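Hi team, as promised in this morning's meeting, here are the two structures we talked about. I've kept the exact order from the run log so nobody has to guess. The first one is mostly here for context; it's the second one we should focus on when we meet again. Sequence first, then the predicted structure tokens.
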Amino acid sequence: MGTHHHGRTARLELDDQSLREWDALVLSSGPEGIVLDRSAFYPGGGGQPPDEGVLLWQGVQTRIAGVRKGDDLELIPVEGDPVPPAGTTVTGAVEDARRTALMRTHSGLHLLCGVVFRDYGCLVTGGNMEPLTARMDFDLREVPPGFKQAVEDACNAEVEADRRIDVKELPRDEAFEIPDIIRTATNLVPPEVQEVRIVDIVGLDTQADGGTHVASTKQIGRVQVAKVENKGRGFRRLRIKIND
């Protein structure tokens, strides 16, 4: 798989989702943002928040509070922290516990999406996540009796099945030939995107997605459907928690 870029930055996290530490060169920097030539900080998107972490350089630490997507990927330093000047070699490190929790959560949402689509035929209308807690909105007119427990049980059966989660790139035309590749009610893949990143929970759910994921459903942990809320006009919001 080729290296992905955003502006001048090679995005390492899309090729290796387990990468937490790497060396990089500072291309430009200031208190507003730092641009590296290579970064594994996930910049946020698809409901997944940006990573946090640190840059280490010359015995100094710069804490990274988030990432901004402009022409370049700008790492946002914590206010008041020293900033490495352009030309400095730094070691970047993503905060592991948070990222791993977000990967488990993001994969958990795909699992939920796959189960609800398979068992009830519903499309997703929205979603959002924080580490180990998330919500997903579905276009579901009627909530069948026992729905909450049935969905939870079905999700955990898929966790136990330990399905592989594969990530691959396909040319746009080929990707859109896959049935139901877009599980959202609106197609969110911009027309200029020629290579579509596909996340495949093998045998359950295949969809276009730009986030980071664990390698198998077992790594998600137990899925708890905490709440089903009625948001009107057939929209149902499912709130989930991911447990060890």
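And here is the second protein, the one for discussion:
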Amino acid sequence: MAGTPQDPFDALDGYSRTVAQVARTITPSVASLHSAGERGEGTGSAVVFTGDGFLLTNAHVLGRADGGTARFADGSDAPFSVVGADPLSDLAVVRAVGGTPPPVRLGDSDRLVVGQLVVAVGNPLGLAGSVTAGVVSGLGRSLPARSGQAARIIEDVIQTDAALNPGNSGGALADSRGLVVGINTAVAGVGLGLAIPINATTRRIIDSLVRHGRVRRAYLGLVTTPAPLPHELVERTGQRTGLRVVDVVRHSPAARAGLHRGDLVLTAGGNPVRDAQGLQRLMFAEAIGRPLPITVTRNGALVDVIAEPVELLDSPR
């Protein structure tokens, strides 16, 4: 007597089952983007993240394109228009016209740990719906970004060994629960991929792109790097790290406030600053032109200054 057909998933081990389930969940919502504009064409990937046709991708995938076509794993396609792009975070939002597959669920990259399983879904080399798996091999990496004369460091970039190839940019990086925790952005070398994190800061950027088509940022003129606090300050504040000022841009708000190279930033706006994201999450539109109290330690003494951020101006896409 013939047996009941076996579900292919029954033959998979735990690791394979997890990867296959994530792939089955995410792949339908990842599109292959073919963009076009006056300055040429481009290809990459994008992820449906709302039920009304908004897709998330990389700014560098779009370049200066105005629109194009999104093709999905089920063979359907839809024209899209560019809603907004932010080269300084390498994120962009487009909107497809007509029906799109169900959206993915966005997660929180701040909960990732090194060694955790991640799955990358994209369209490398024009091969739609390609899936690779690996682990988080590093957290807190930095990636330089530039738009016109404005430059910025994208902080808390996720490093993974999931294989990425040209065309993966703009695709999804998901955890074992199928939550999208990053947008794949670059191939940094053999066996090394990078992804823009999905966290509180980037969610604000995405929301601003959807609502306004651009991101207004405040500018201080500081170049910083995370640094441990002296033992006595740890005892006094309960804070273990701050931001060491590597450089202060001449004539910038930070320079006018009296900040110096070598200062160790402890708080900004009354909030502890433990990493670059702690400062960058304050540098949005509401901070422009408003006094920002900053506390640093300098030569063993606490120093309070008041800076007034200005708007960061960059060139149009």
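Starting points for discussion:
The chain has six helices and 21 strands.
The chain has a mean pLDDT of 87.
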